[in-house]
From TrEMBL:
The lineage of its organism: Eukaryota, Metazoa, Ecdysozoa, Arthropoda, Hexapoda. Residues 157-425 form the Fumarylacetoacetase-like C-terminal domain. Keywords: Calcium, Hydrolase, Magnesium, Membrane, Metal-binding, Phenylalanine catabolism, Transmembrane, Transmembrane helix, Tyrosine catabolism. Substrate binds at Y159, R173, Q272, Y276, T381. The active site is at H164 (proton acceptor). The keyword DNA-binding does not apply. It catalyses: 4-fumarylacetoacetate + H2O = acetoacetate + fumarate + H(+). The chain crosses the membrane at residues 12-31. Belongs to the FAH family. The gene is putative Fumarylacetoacetase. It comes from Clunio marinus. This is Fumarylacetoacetase.
Amino acid sequence: VSHRLSYSAHLLINIPFQFIFILFFNFLYLVNFNTDRMMSKDIPQGSDFTFENLPYCVFTTSDLAIHRIGVGIGDRILDLSAVANFYPKHLQDALSATKLNLLMSLGYEAWNEVRNVTKQILNLGSSTNFDPNVQKALVEQSKATFHLPADIGDYTDFYSSIHHATNVGVMFRGKENALMPNWKYLPVGYHGRSSSVVVSGTPIYRPYGQTIPVDEAQPVFGPCRLFDFELEVGFFIGGPPTKLGERVTTQEAAKRVFGFVLMNDWSARDIQKWEYVPLGPFTAKNLGTSISPWIIPTAALEPFKVDNFPQDPKPFPYLQHDEKFNFDINLTVEIKPENGAPVVVSRSNYRNLYWTALQQIAHHTVTGCNLKPGDLMASGTISGESPESYGSMLELSWKGTKIIKIGEGEERKFLKDGDEVIIRGFCQNGHSRVGFGSCSGKVLPAIPFED
């Protein structure tokens, strides 16, 4: 785009400065407002991937096996490697890479620059303002295979939904002791493992493990019986790596959030019950975590900010911030039985989180723990107040005491082999829509041990 604008600048050399100034701001107006109108003609109605969104992904196609970074627009993907020369030189290596880590590392200002230039490029490829070079760089999503968008160095899972934490506490400790004493003082979390984070569509095997089928009995070993999903939203860390001993404040943290993904943190509840004391989740959680292939930029979610969840008692100063960093993201979970139609079993919302991503980052680094671009942090299960908004089978079935109907003749308390879990998310404000696509995974039977 820059080299296309240089010719226009050459023609304006002898024009008075005031006129150039007016033309420049008129150009910005056209880019920021008219481009949206031009591109809307090329985007199917109801699409998640609108001009206001522009989410990132990593993909391949049958005719080109090299991993490339793309931006979703309607039912297509803009291959950034094919148009990298349209961007300033200091961005081109990051956009030609096979993962998003390098772009993540460049920081907040670079992300905004890429976003602005991408809008201009898409204008050149629209049906209103046709450019064959840009058109060649647009790939149909139906012809793409999606991959993990980044090399994930570290993965941390929080426990930040007050309704979910309360529900679980009531089930196992009673109403009087539902929340542990520390819960309202700090964002509770645990360090997971990045090796088994997989992209949407990857099947998940039912795990083997030790369980206690009957309380006070001896443990047994076998396939998990109480297999569950967890409705979560994760975010990727960006910016330059921090050094060991360096903290990130809540005021600085917003510029560290590259973007958000849908997540299913699969859980083996019966294995978890036996193993989690005293150090917390281990093999009940390391069997697989699914994330959506699309990373929604934080900038795309700006119009959907809502008030942060009221916090009482007031957090310690290092966890306080005035900036709104909660979002009105509608979330659904569907279960599709094998040979059946998908049925929505949960409708929740990201705004139900008690602790914000900024507080999660500040607490994560208050000890001086270092961050790297591509680190993944997750919300924990997102549940609302009402039963239909619970974000796990554990809550929906209330520890197996209630039956969940999922279509004609199909009932569940926990997941069965062959079930596919599909998580979706979107923001809607009038005609403006920003969607997350979907995060799905099918439960496969446990792999038996050889005799």
